[in-house]
Write a structure and sequence with these properties.
Length: 311
C-alpha cells in the first residue's frame, strides 16, 4: 500500500520515517506541519524501523523550540484594506475559531472588540471561549440562538480569527447577508463557504494580526460603540435558555434540564466531550459553562463514538 497516496486521499499531510536515526527529525516535522497546516499528518514508521535500536543521548527537542510556528506579519496591502473595512463598519462581529484559541489571542480579541464595538461569536470548535462577556453571542451558525441570529444577521463586517467560514458557520449566508469579511488565518487564502474569498485576507498568526489591527485603528483614533449597547446586551442575556413547555411522558425528564444540570455540576476545570447521539443538538446548545476543553462531536451521526473520543 502506498501510504502517501492514502494520506493524500484523506487530505492529510504525510511524513515518512526512513531510518531510526531520523526519528527525532521526522516527529518534529510531523508536529510542525500539523500545527502550521492545521490538518492531520500521517507519520509513516515501517515496522523494521520501529524495532531498531538507536544510540542517541540527546534529549528530544520539540518543534516549537526549533521551528517557527507559522506565518508572521500579514501582507501590508491586505492589512490596509482590512483596517479600512473595519473603520467604515458600524456593526462589526469578531468570529473566533480554534485558531484564535491555539494562538492564545483572547486578550487581543477582547481589546479589538472593545475598541470597535464588536460582539464576539465563535465557531462550534471554539464553543464557550470568552463567554463571560455580556457581548458574547455564542456559536455562529446553525447552532446560534434565535436572539443571536437576529443580531448577527444585521452585521456589516465580520472579522474571522482562526475560524473556518464554512457554510455551517455562516448558516449558508443567512447570518451575514450584507457583511464584508476580514479573515485572519495561518492557512494561505482559505475559501469561505460558497467558494467566495474574504474581502481582506491576512495570512498571519491571530495574535500578531490583531495587535497590528488595533495599533492601526488606534493611530486613526478609531473607537466606537457599535453593537456594545444596553439593548444588545439585554437581547443576548439568557438567549441560550430555552424554556418553551413540552408535555413529558410520566417518569421522564426534560433533556434540556438534564444537560443544564450536568453542565452546572461538572467543575469548569473538567473537559466536556459531547457525543454524536440524538441529544447532541440539545447538549451543544445547552452546555454553556466556560471550560478549558469543550468538544462537540458529530461523527457523521454515528452514535456511541463520543466515549472513545473522550478517552
Amino acid at each position: 500500500l502506498d501510504h502517501s497516496r492514502f494520506a493524500e486521499a484523506m487530505e492529510a499531510g504525510f511524513v515518512r520515517l526512513l531510518s531510526a536515526e531520523q526519528a527525532d527529525d521526522a516527529v518534529r516535522t510531523a508536529f510542525y506541519r500539523a500545527r502550521a497546516e492545521s490538518r492531520p499528518v500521517v507519520l509513516s514508521a515501517p515496522a523494521d524501523i520501529q524495532q531498531a535500536d538507536v544510540l542517541d543521548d540527546e534529549p528530544y527537542a520539540v518543534s516549537r523550540d526549533l521551528l517557527p510556528a507559522g506565518p508572521g506579519l500579514p501582507n501590508p496591502d491586505e492589512l490596509a484594506r482590512a483596517v479600512d473595512l473595519i473603520a467604515s463598519s458600524r456593526r462589526p462581529v469578531i468570529l473566533a475559531g480554534r485558531g484564535a484559541v491555539a494562538s492564545g489571542a483572547g486578550a487581543q480579541v477582547e481589546a479589538l472588540a472593545e475598541r470597535i464595538g464588536a460582539i464576539v461569536a465563535t465557531t462550534l470548535l471554539a464553543k464557550n471561549w470568552l463567554a463571560a462577556s455580556p457581548y458574547h453571542a455564542g456559536i455562529s451558525g446553525l447552532y446560534s440562538t434565535a436572539a443571536a441570529m437576529d443580531v448577527l444577521s444585521a452585521a456589516d463586517c465580520v472579522i474571522a480569527v482562526g475560524a473556518g467560514l464554512n457554510n455551517d458557520t455562516v448558516a449558508h449566508g443567512y447570518l451575514y447577508p450584507e457583511a464584508r469579511f476580514v479573515q485572519i488565518d495561518v492557512r494561505p487564502n482559505a475559501l469561505m463557504g460558497g467558494g467566495r474569498c474574504a474581502d481582506a485576507y491576512l495570512h498571519a498568526d491571530a495574535a500578531a494580526a490583531l495587535d497590528l489591527l488595533s495599533a492601526r485603528l488606534d493611530g486613526r483614533g478609531h473607537r466606537q460603540t457599535g453593537y456594545r449597547t444596553a439593548d444588545v446586551a439585554e437581547r443576548l442575556a439568557g438567549a441560550a435558555v430555552d424554556d418553551r413547555p413540552f408535555e413529558l411522558e410520566p417518569g421522564t425528564l426534560d433533556t434540556r434540564d438534564v444537560c443544564r444540570r450536568l453542565d452546572e455540576c461538572t467543575p469548569p476545570d473538567v473537559g466536556l466531550v459531547l457525543g454524536g447521539g440524538h441529544a447532541v443538538q440539545i447538549a451543544t446548545m445547552t452546555c454553556n459553562r466556560p471550560r478549558e476543553l469543550m468538544l462537540a462531536n458529530q461523527h457523521f451521526g454515528c452514535i456511541g463514538q463520543g466515549l472513545t473520543t473522550a478517552m
